[in-house]
Design brief:
This protein is α/β, with parallel strands linked by helices. It has helices at residues 22-31, 48-60, 86-89, 99-106, 125-133, 164-174, 190-201, 233-245, 261-270, 307-315, 333-340, 370-382, 393-398, 402-408; strands at 3-7, 13-17, 38-42, 63-66, 72-75, 83-84, 108-112, 137-141, 144-148, 156-158, 180-184, 205-207, 213-217, 225-228, 249-253, 273-277, 280-284, 294-295, 320-324, 344-348, 351-355, 364-366, 386-390, 412-416. Bound molecules: ligand EPZ.
Amino acid sequence: MDKLAIQGGQSLRGEIRISGAKNAALPILCAALLSADTLHLDNLPKLRDISTTLTLLGHIGCQISLDERGGIDLCSAQLARLEAPYHLVKTMRASILVLGPILTRYGEARVSLPGGCAIGSRPVDLHIKGLQAMGADIQIEHGYILARANRLQGARIVMENVTVTGTENLMMAATLAQGVTVLENAAREPEVVDLARCLVSMGARIQGVGTDTIVIEGVERLHGAQHTILPDRIETGTYLVAAAMTQGDIVLTHSSTDTLDVVLDKLREAGAQIHCAGDRIALRMDVRPQAVNLRTAPYPAFPTDMQAQFMAMNCIASGVGRITETIFENRFMHVQEMQRLGARIEIEGNTALVRGVERLQGATVMATDLRASASLVLAALVAEGETVIERIYHIDRGYECIEEKFNQLGAKVRRVH
Ligand code: EPZ
Protein backbone atom coordinates (compact mmCIF):
# COMPACT_ATOMS: atom_id res chain seq x y z
CA MET A 1 0.00 0.00 0.00
CA ASP A 2 1.64 3.26 -1.13
CA LYS A 3 1.80 6.20 1.23
CA LEU A 4 2.63 9.88 0.77
CA ALA A 5 5.13 11.51 3.14
CA ILE A 6 4.77 15.30 3.12
CA GLN A 7 7.04 17.87 4.78
CA GLY A 8 4.92 20.93 5.59
CA GLY A 9 5.90 24.61 5.44
CA GLN A 10 6.62 25.38 1.77
CA SER A 11 4.77 28.13 -0.10
CA LEU A 12 3.78 26.88 -3.56
CA ARG A 13 5.29 28.81 -6.43
CA GLY A 14 5.47 28.12 -10.15
CA GLU A 15 3.40 26.76 -12.99
CA ILE A 16 1.77 23.38 -13.66
CA ARG A 17 -0.47 21.96 -16.37
CA ILE A 18 -4.03 20.85 -15.55
CA SER A 19 -5.12 17.44 -16.87
CA GLY A 20 -8.31 16.42 -18.66
CA ALA A 21 -11.41 16.05 -16.47
CA LYS A 22 -11.87 12.57 -14.96
CA ASN A 23 -15.65 13.05 -14.66
CA ALA A 24 -15.96 13.98 -18.33
CA ALA A 25 -13.59 11.26 -19.55
CA LEU A 26 -15.51 8.45 -17.81
CA PRO A 27 -18.90 8.97 -19.53
CA ILE A 28 -17.24 9.92 -22.84
CA LEU A 29 -15.25 6.66 -22.87
CA CYS A 30 -18.56 4.81 -22.38
CA ALA A 31 -20.08 6.77 -25.27
CA ALA A 32 -17.72 4.81 -27.57
CA LEU A 33 -20.09 1.85 -27.07
CA LEU A 34 -22.82 3.73 -28.94
CA SER A 35 -21.18 3.55 -32.38
CA ALA A 36 -19.59 0.92 -34.65
CA ASP A 37 -17.11 3.57 -35.86
CA THR A 38 -13.97 4.81 -34.18
CA LEU A 39 -14.10 7.48 -31.46
CA HIS A 40 -10.77 9.31 -31.03
CA LEU A 41 -10.17 11.05 -27.70
CA ASP A 42 -7.44 13.51 -26.68
CA ASN A 43 -6.44 14.99 -23.28
CA LEU A 44 -7.48 11.86 -21.36
CA PRO A 45 -5.98 12.07 -17.84
CA LYS A 46 -3.69 9.19 -16.78
CA LEU A 47 -5.69 7.97 -13.81
CA ARG A 48 -6.60 4.66 -12.20
CA ASP A 49 -10.31 5.26 -12.92
CA ILE A 50 -9.52 5.72 -16.61
CA SER A 51 -7.54 2.48 -16.79
CA THR A 52 -10.36 0.71 -14.91
CA THR A 53 -12.85 1.97 -17.49
CA LEU A 54 -10.61 0.89 -20.37
CA THR A 55 -10.36 -2.58 -18.80
CA LEU A 56 -14.16 -2.72 -18.58
CA LEU A 57 -14.61 -1.56 -22.20
CA GLY A 58 -12.03 -4.14 -23.30
CA HIS A 59 -13.94 -6.84 -21.39
CA ILE A 60 -17.11 -5.82 -23.26
CA GLY A 61 -15.27 -6.08 -26.59
CA CYS A 62 -14.29 -2.53 -27.47
CA GLN A 63 -11.05 -2.36 -29.51
CA ILE A 64 -8.70 0.15 -27.87
CA SER A 65 -5.45 1.60 -29.24
CA LEU A 66 -3.22 4.39 -27.95
CA ASP A 67 -1.44 6.74 -30.33
CA GLU A 68 2.03 8.14 -29.72
CA ARG A 69 0.69 11.53 -28.56
CA GLY A 70 -1.34 9.98 -25.75
CA GLY A 71 -4.59 10.05 -27.74
CA ILE A 72 -6.78 6.97 -27.80
CA ASP A 73 -8.93 5.24 -30.46
CA LEU A 74 -11.95 3.21 -29.37
CA CYS A 75 -13.96 1.01 -31.74
CA SER A 76 -17.05 -0.93 -30.68
CA ALA A 77 -17.89 -2.54 -34.04
CA GLN A 78 -18.53 -5.97 -32.51
CA LEU A 79 -19.13 -6.29 -28.77
CA ALA A 80 -18.28 -9.64 -27.17
CA ARG A 81 -20.22 -9.31 -23.93
CA LEU A 82 -23.14 -7.07 -23.02
CA GLU A 83 -22.18 -6.97 -19.36
CA ALA A 84 -20.21 -5.16 -16.65
CA PRO A 85 -19.12 -7.74 -14.05
CA TYR A 86 -19.03 -7.11 -10.30
CA HIS A 87 -15.25 -7.48 -9.96
CA LEU A 88 -14.80 -4.46 -12.24
CA VAL A 89 -17.82 -2.39 -11.13
CA LYS A 90 -16.98 -2.71 -7.41
CA THR A 91 -13.72 -0.79 -7.95
CA MET A 92 -15.46 2.06 -9.72
CA ARG A 93 -19.10 3.06 -9.40
CA ALA A 94 -19.05 5.04 -12.62
CA SER A 95 -19.04 1.68 -14.46
CA ILE A 96 -22.84 2.07 -14.32
CA LEU A 97 -22.35 4.41 -17.28
CA VAL A 98 -22.08 1.44 -19.69
CA LEU A 99 -25.71 0.52 -18.96
CA GLY A 100 -27.41 3.18 -21.09
CA PRO A 101 -25.13 2.78 -24.15
CA ILE A 102 -25.22 -1.04 -24.24
CA LEU A 103 -28.99 -1.20 -23.68
CA THR A 104 -29.89 1.40 -26.31
CA ARG A 105 -27.61 -0.12 -28.97
CA TYR A 106 -28.08 -3.86 -28.32
CA GLY A 107 -31.44 -4.12 -26.51
CA GLU A 108 -30.03 -5.97 -23.51
CA ALA A 109 -27.48 -5.38 -20.76
CA ARG A 110 -26.30 -7.08 -17.55
CA VAL A 111 -24.57 -4.64 -15.24
CA SER A 112 -23.54 -5.22 -11.63
CA LEU A 113 -25.17 -2.91 -9.12
CA PRO A 114 -22.37 -0.63 -7.86
CA GLY A 115 -21.85 -1.03 -4.13
CA GLY A 116 -22.07 1.95 -1.82
CA CYS A 117 -18.94 3.89 -1.03
CA ALA A 118 -17.38 5.89 1.79
CA ILE A 119 -19.33 9.07 1.06
CA GLY A 120 -22.80 7.58 0.89
CA SER A 121 -25.17 4.86 -0.26
CA ARG A 122 -24.99 6.18 -3.84
CA PRO A 123 -28.16 4.50 -5.20
CA VAL A 124 -28.80 4.24 -8.95
CA ASP A 125 -32.61 4.12 -8.70
CA LEU A 126 -33.01 7.21 -10.90
CA HIS A 127 -30.92 5.64 -13.67
CA ILE A 128 -33.21 2.60 -13.56
CA LYS A 129 -36.48 4.57 -13.31
CA GLY A 130 -35.47 6.64 -16.34
CA LEU A 131 -34.70 3.58 -18.47
CA GLN A 132 -38.00 2.00 -17.40
CA ALA A 133 -39.78 5.19 -18.48
CA MET A 134 -38.15 4.62 -21.89
CA GLY A 135 -39.67 1.15 -22.04
CA ALA A 136 -36.88 -1.00 -20.64
CA ASP A 137 -37.80 -4.14 -18.69
CA ILE A 138 -35.43 -4.18 -15.70
CA GLN A 139 -34.97 -6.96 -13.15
CA ILE A 140 -32.52 -6.88 -10.23
CA GLU A 141 -31.17 -10.39 -9.61
CA HIS A 142 -28.21 -11.55 -7.55
CA GLY A 143 -26.73 -8.03 -7.40
CA TYR A 144 -27.08 -7.45 -11.14
CA ILE A 145 -29.26 -5.12 -13.20
CA LEU A 146 -30.76 -7.18 -16.05
CA ALA A 147 -32.19 -4.80 -18.65
CA ARG A 148 -34.03 -5.57 -21.90
CA ALA A 149 -35.71 -3.44 -24.55
CA ASN A 150 -36.54 -4.09 -28.22
CA ARG A 151 -35.90 -0.43 -28.83
CA LEU A 152 -36.01 2.27 -26.16
CA GLN A 153 -38.79 4.80 -26.69
CA GLY A 154 -38.40 8.53 -26.15
CA ALA A 155 -40.08 9.73 -22.94
CA ARG A 156 -40.49 12.79 -20.72
CA ILE A 157 -38.48 12.04 -17.54
CA VAL A 158 -38.54 14.30 -14.50
CA MET A 159 -35.51 13.43 -12.34
CA GLU A 160 -36.46 13.41 -8.64
CA ASN A 161 -32.86 14.35 -7.68
CA VAL A 162 -30.25 16.14 -9.76
CA THR A 163 -27.94 13.27 -10.66
CA VAL A 164 -24.81 13.74 -12.77
CA THR A 165 -24.24 10.18 -13.97
CA GLY A 166 -28.01 9.57 -14.04
CA THR A 167 -28.38 12.45 -16.51
CA GLU A 168 -25.41 11.13 -18.52
CA ASN A 169 -26.69 7.53 -18.63
CA LEU A 170 -30.17 8.58 -19.78
CA MET A 171 -28.86 11.12 -22.28
CA MET A 172 -26.69 8.42 -23.90
CA ALA A 173 -29.58 5.93 -23.88
CA ALA A 174 -31.86 8.51 -25.54
CA THR A 175 -29.49 9.16 -28.47
CA LEU A 176 -30.54 5.90 -30.20
CA ALA A 177 -34.09 5.66 -28.81
CA GLN A 178 -37.21 5.92 -31.01
CA GLY A 179 -38.53 9.49 -30.78
CA VAL A 180 -37.81 12.40 -28.44
CA THR A 181 -36.70 12.22 -24.80
CA VAL A 182 -36.97 15.20 -22.44
CA LEU A 183 -34.86 15.09 -19.25
CA GLU A 184 -36.18 17.57 -16.69
CA ASN A 185 -34.28 18.58 -13.54
CA ALA A 186 -31.20 17.41 -15.44
CA ALA A 187 -27.66 17.98 -14.15
CA ARG A 188 -25.91 21.07 -15.55
CA GLU A 189 -22.30 20.14 -14.71
CA PRO A 190 -19.66 21.08 -17.35
CA GLU A 191 -18.81 17.38 -17.65
CA VAL A 192 -22.39 16.68 -18.77
CA VAL A 193 -22.00 19.47 -21.36
CA ASP A 194 -18.71 17.99 -22.57
CA LEU A 195 -20.33 14.56 -22.99
CA ALA A 196 -23.16 16.12 -24.98
CA ARG A 197 -20.66 17.94 -27.21
CA CYS A 198 -18.98 14.61 -27.93
CA LEU A 199 -22.33 12.88 -28.63
CA VAL A 200 -23.39 15.67 -31.01
CA SER A 201 -20.08 15.31 -32.87
CA MET A 202 -21.03 11.61 -33.24
CA GLY A 203 -24.35 12.63 -34.85
CA ALA A 204 -26.63 12.80 -31.82
CA ARG A 205 -29.38 15.44 -31.73
CA ILE A 206 -29.30 17.18 -28.32
CA GLN A 207 -30.68 20.56 -27.24
CA GLY A 208 -30.64 22.36 -23.89
CA VAL A 209 -27.55 20.76 -22.38
CA GLY A 210 -26.15 22.95 -19.60
CA THR A 211 -29.69 23.83 -18.57
CA ASP A 212 -32.01 21.73 -16.39
CA THR A 213 -34.05 20.57 -19.40
CA ILE A 214 -32.26 18.47 -22.04
CA VAL A 215 -34.09 17.35 -25.22
CA ILE A 216 -32.68 14.40 -27.18
CA GLU A 217 -34.12 13.33 -30.54
CA GLY A 218 -33.22 9.69 -31.18
CA VAL A 219 -31.40 8.75 -34.41
CA GLU A 220 -30.80 5.40 -36.13
CA ARG A 221 -27.05 5.25 -35.56
CA LEU A 222 -24.08 7.32 -34.40
CA HIS A 223 -20.81 7.65 -36.33
CA GLY A 224 -17.19 8.13 -35.30
CA ALA A 225 -15.75 11.44 -34.11
CA GLN A 226 -12.79 13.13 -32.46
CA HIS A 227 -13.12 14.86 -29.08
CA THR A 228 -10.78 16.62 -26.68
CA ILE A 229 -11.71 16.16 -23.00
CA LEU A 230 -12.29 19.45 -21.19
CA PRO A 231 -9.91 20.49 -18.36
CA ASP A 232 -10.53 19.18 -14.85
CA ARG A 233 -12.16 21.95 -12.80
CA ILE A 234 -11.81 20.00 -9.53
CA GLU A 235 -8.10 19.41 -10.04
CA THR A 236 -7.84 23.13 -10.85
CA GLY A 237 -9.70 24.10 -7.68
CA THR A 238 -7.60 21.74 -5.58
CA TYR A 239 -4.31 23.34 -6.63
CA LEU A 240 -5.75 26.84 -6.20
CA VAL A 241 -6.75 26.05 -2.61
CA ALA A 242 -3.28 24.59 -1.98
CA ALA A 243 -1.69 27.83 -3.20
CA ALA A 244 -4.04 29.91 -1.05
CA MET A 245 -3.31 27.83 2.07
CA THR A 246 0.46 28.02 1.64
CA GLN A 247 0.41 31.77 0.79
CA GLY A 248 1.92 30.96 -2.58
CA ASP A 249 1.94 32.31 -6.12
CA ILE A 250 1.03 29.85 -8.90
CA VAL A 251 -0.16 29.66 -12.50
CA LEU A 252 -2.29 26.79 -13.82
CA THR A 253 -2.24 26.21 -17.60
CA HIS A 254 -4.56 24.21 -19.90
CA SER A 255 -7.27 24.93 -17.36
CA SER A 256 -10.81 26.24 -17.75
CA THR A 257 -11.68 29.59 -16.22
CA ASP A 258 -15.46 29.55 -16.80
CA THR A 259 -16.48 26.45 -14.86
CA LEU A 260 -15.40 27.48 -11.36
CA ASP A 261 -17.04 30.88 -10.77
CA VAL A 262 -18.33 30.13 -7.27
CA VAL A 263 -15.04 28.50 -6.22
CA LEU A 264 -13.01 31.49 -7.47
CA ASP A 265 -15.40 33.87 -5.65
CA LYS A 266 -14.88 31.94 -2.39
CA LEU A 267 -11.10 32.03 -2.83
CA ARG A 268 -11.24 35.81 -3.37
CA GLU A 269 -13.43 36.08 -0.26
CA ALA A 270 -10.66 34.22 1.61
CA GLY A 271 -8.18 36.89 0.45
CA ALA A 272 -6.66 35.44 -2.73
CA GLN A 273 -5.80 37.54 -5.79
CA ILE A 274 -6.90 35.64 -8.92
CA HIS A 275 -6.38 36.51 -12.58
CA CYS A 276 -7.78 34.50 -15.49
CA ALA A 277 -6.57 34.81 -19.08
CA GLY A 278 -7.47 32.26 -21.77
CA ASP A 279 -6.78 28.81 -20.35
CA ARG A 280 -4.53 30.16 -17.56
CA ILE A 281 -5.48 30.90 -13.95
CA ALA A 282 -3.03 32.72 -11.66
CA LEU A 283 -3.47 32.84 -7.88
CA ARG A 284 -1.42 34.80 -5.41
CA MET A 285 -1.98 34.85 -1.64
CA ASP A 286 -0.01 37.18 0.64
CA VAL A 287 -2.01 36.75 3.83
CA ARG A 288 -3.43 34.02 6.07
CA PRO A 289 -6.78 32.98 4.55
CA GLN A 290 -10.00 34.35 6.01
CA ALA A 291 -12.49 31.59 6.95
CA VAL A 292 -15.37 31.22 4.46
CA ASN A 293 -18.87 29.77 4.73
CA LEU A 294 -20.15 27.48 1.98
CA ARG A 295 -23.01 25.18 1.11
CA THR A 296 -22.64 22.52 -1.57
CA ALA A 297 -25.30 22.11 -4.26
CA PRO A 298 -25.58 21.03 -7.91
CA TYR A 299 -23.77 23.08 -10.58
CA PRO A 300 -23.46 26.04 -10.95
CA ALA A 301 -23.52 26.29 -7.14
CA PHE A 302 -20.56 25.29 -4.95
CA PRO A 303 -19.36 21.80 -5.99
CA THR A 304 -19.44 19.01 -3.39
CA ASP A 305 -16.12 17.78 -4.87
CA MET A 306 -14.46 20.95 -3.54
CA GLN A 307 -15.94 20.77 -0.02
CA ALA A 308 -13.12 18.82 1.66
CA GLN A 309 -10.47 21.08 0.13
CA PHE A 310 -12.13 24.22 1.52
CA MET A 311 -12.48 22.55 4.89
CA ALA A 312 -8.69 22.10 4.90
CA MET A 313 -8.31 25.81 4.16
CA ASN A 314 -10.75 26.77 6.93
CA CYS A 315 -8.71 24.65 9.36
CA ILE A 316 -5.86 27.16 9.22
CA ALA A 317 -7.87 30.28 8.32
CA SER A 318 -8.52 33.18 10.72
CA GLY A 319 -12.08 33.06 12.04
CA VAL A 320 -14.80 30.44 11.98
CA GLY A 321 -16.17 28.87 8.78
CA ARG A 322 -19.43 26.93 8.35
CA ILE A 323 -19.51 24.19 5.72
CA THR A 324 -22.81 22.52 4.80
CA GLU A 325 -22.84 19.39 2.63
CA THR A 326 -26.20 18.87 0.92
CA ILE A 327 -25.35 16.29 -1.78
CA PHE A 328 -23.97 13.26 0.07
CA GLU A 329 -24.95 11.99 3.49
CA ASN A 330 -21.49 11.04 4.66
CA ARG A 331 -18.95 13.33 3.07
CA PHE A 332 -17.19 14.44 6.27
CA MET A 333 -14.87 11.40 6.50
CA HIS A 334 -11.89 13.78 6.33
CA VAL A 335 -12.93 15.55 9.56
CA GLN A 336 -11.61 13.01 12.06
CA GLU A 337 -8.36 12.74 10.10
CA MET A 338 -7.93 16.53 10.15
CA GLN A 339 -8.62 16.53 13.89
CA ARG A 340 -5.58 14.23 14.23
CA LEU A 341 -3.59 17.07 12.69
CA GLY A 342 -4.92 19.48 15.33
CA ALA A 343 -7.92 20.92 13.48
CA ARG A 344 -10.86 22.24 15.56
CA ILE A 345 -14.03 21.02 13.79
CA GLU A 346 -17.50 20.36 15.23
CA ILE A 347 -20.12 18.54 13.19
CA GLU A 348 -23.84 19.25 13.62
CA GLY A 349 -25.80 17.08 11.16
CA ASN A 350 -24.68 18.04 7.66
CA THR A 351 -22.86 21.16 8.82
CA ALA A 352 -19.27 21.41 10.04
CA LEU A 353 -18.12 24.38 12.12
CA VAL A 354 -14.39 24.96 11.63
CA ARG A 355 -12.44 27.21 14.01
CA GLY A 356 -9.15 28.10 12.31
CA VAL A 357 -5.89 27.41 14.16
CA GLU A 358 -2.47 29.01 13.61
CA ARG A 359 -0.68 25.75 12.83
CA LEU A 360 -1.57 22.09 12.28
CA GLN A 361 0.83 19.39 13.48
CA GLY A 362 2.04 16.65 11.14
CA ALA A 363 0.83 13.11 11.94
CA THR A 364 -0.06 9.83 10.24
CA VAL A 365 -3.55 9.95 8.70
CA MET A 366 -5.64 7.73 6.45
CA ALA A 367 -7.29 8.55 3.14
CA THR A 368 -10.91 7.41 2.85
CA ASP A 369 -12.25 8.75 -0.45
CA LEU A 370 -10.89 10.70 -3.38
CA ARG A 371 -11.50 14.31 -2.38
CA ALA A 372 -11.00 13.67 1.35
CA SER A 373 -7.54 12.33 0.46
CA ALA A 374 -6.75 15.46 -1.52
CA SER A 375 -7.79 17.61 1.46
CA LEU A 376 -5.35 15.72 3.70
CA VAL A 377 -2.54 16.49 1.23
CA LEU A 378 -3.48 20.18 1.44
CA ALA A 379 -3.52 20.09 5.25
CA ALA A 380 -0.13 18.30 5.25
CA LEU A 381 1.38 21.08 3.09
CA VAL A 382 0.84 23.58 5.95
CA ALA A 383 1.28 21.24 8.95
CA GLU A 384 4.37 21.43 11.13
CA GLY A 385 6.80 18.58 10.40
CA GLU A 386 6.00 15.45 8.44
CA THR A 387 2.57 14.01 7.64
CA VAL A 388 2.17 10.48 6.29
CA ILE A 389 -1.04 9.72 4.38
CA GLU A 390 -1.94 6.04 4.07
CA ARG A 391 -4.23 4.32 1.52
CA ILE A 392 -3.44 6.84 -1.19
CA TYR A 393 -4.86 4.62 -3.94
CA HIS A 394 -7.90 6.83 -3.43
CA ILE A 395 -5.85 9.81 -4.61
CA ASP A 396 -4.45 7.99 -7.64
CA ARG A 397 -8.01 7.45 -8.88
CA GLY A 398 -8.52 11.15 -9.50
CA TYR A 399 -5.26 13.12 -9.44
CA GLU A 400 -2.69 12.59 -12.21
CA CYS A 401 0.94 12.65 -10.99
CA ILE A 402 -0.03 14.42 -7.77
CA GLU A 403 3.42 14.32 -6.13
CA GLU A 404 5.18 15.44 -9.33
CA LYS A 405 2.83 18.38 -9.75
CA PHE A 406 3.07 19.48 -6.11
CA ASN A 407 6.87 19.07 -6.09
CA GLN A 408 7.07 21.12 -9.29
CA LEU A 409 5.45 23.90 -7.23
CA GLY A 410 8.06 23.56 -4.47
CA ALA A 411 6.29 21.19 -2.10
CA LYS A 412 8.09 18.25 -0.46
CA VAL A 413 5.96 15.21 -1.26
CA ARG A 414 7.49 11.73 -1.32
CA ARG A 415 5.69 8.51 -2.37
CA VAL A 416 6.61 5.64 -0.03
CA HIS A 417 6.05 2.20 -1.56
C1 EPZ B 1 -20.93 12.38 -9.83
O1 EPZ B 1 -21.28 11.26 -9.04
C2 EPZ B 1 -19.42 12.50 -9.74
N1 EPZ B 1 -18.80 11.29 -10.29
C3 EPZ B 1 -19.01 12.69 -8.27
O2 EPZ B 1 -17.61 12.87 -8.23
C4 EPZ B 1 -19.68 13.95 -7.75
O3 EPZ B 1 -19.37 14.10 -6.38
C5 EPZ B 1 -21.21 13.82 -7.91
O4 EPZ B 1 -21.52 13.58 -9.30
C6 EPZ B 1 -21.95 15.08 -7.48
O5 EPZ B 1 -21.48 16.18 -8.22
C7 EPZ B 1 -18.73 11.16 -11.63
O6 EPZ B 1 -19.17 12.02 -12.39
C8 EPZ B 1 -18.07 9.92 -12.14
P1 EPZ B 1 -25.05 12.02 -8.34
P2 EPZ B 1 -22.77 10.66 -9.16
O7 EPZ B 1 -25.78 10.92 -9.02
O8 EPZ B 1 -23.31 10.89 -10.51
C9 EPZ B 1 -28.41 10.82 -5.27
C10 EPZ B 1 -15.46 12.50 -7.54
O9 EPZ B 1 -14.96 12.86 -6.48
N2 EPZ B 1 -28.85 9.84 -6.29
O10 EPZ B 1 -25.05 13.38 -8.96
O11 EPZ B 1 -22.72 9.28 -8.60
C11 EPZ B 1 -27.06 10.47 -4.69
O12 EPZ B 1 -27.19 9.56 -3.62
C12 EPZ B 1 -16.83 11.90 -7.55
O13 EPZ B 1 -14.95 12.65 -8.68
C13 EPZ B 1 -30.00 9.10 -6.08
O14 EPZ B 1 -30.66 9.24 -5.05
O15 EPZ B 1 -23.55 11.58 -8.13
C14 EPZ B 1 -26.56 11.81 -4.22
O16 EPZ B 1 -27.10 12.09 -2.96
C15 EPZ B 1 -17.30 11.60 -6.15
N3 EPZ B 1 -30.39 8.19 -7.02
C16 EPZ B 1 -27.14 12.80 -5.25
O17 EPZ B 1 -28.21 12.09 -5.89
C17 EPZ B 1 -29.69 8.01 -8.18
O18 EPZ B 1 -30.11 7.18 -9.02
C18 EPZ B 1 -26.17 13.24 -6.32
O19 EPZ B 1 -25.56 12.09 -6.84
C19 EPZ B 1 -28.53 8.77 -8.38
C20 EPZ B 1 -28.13 9.67 -7.44
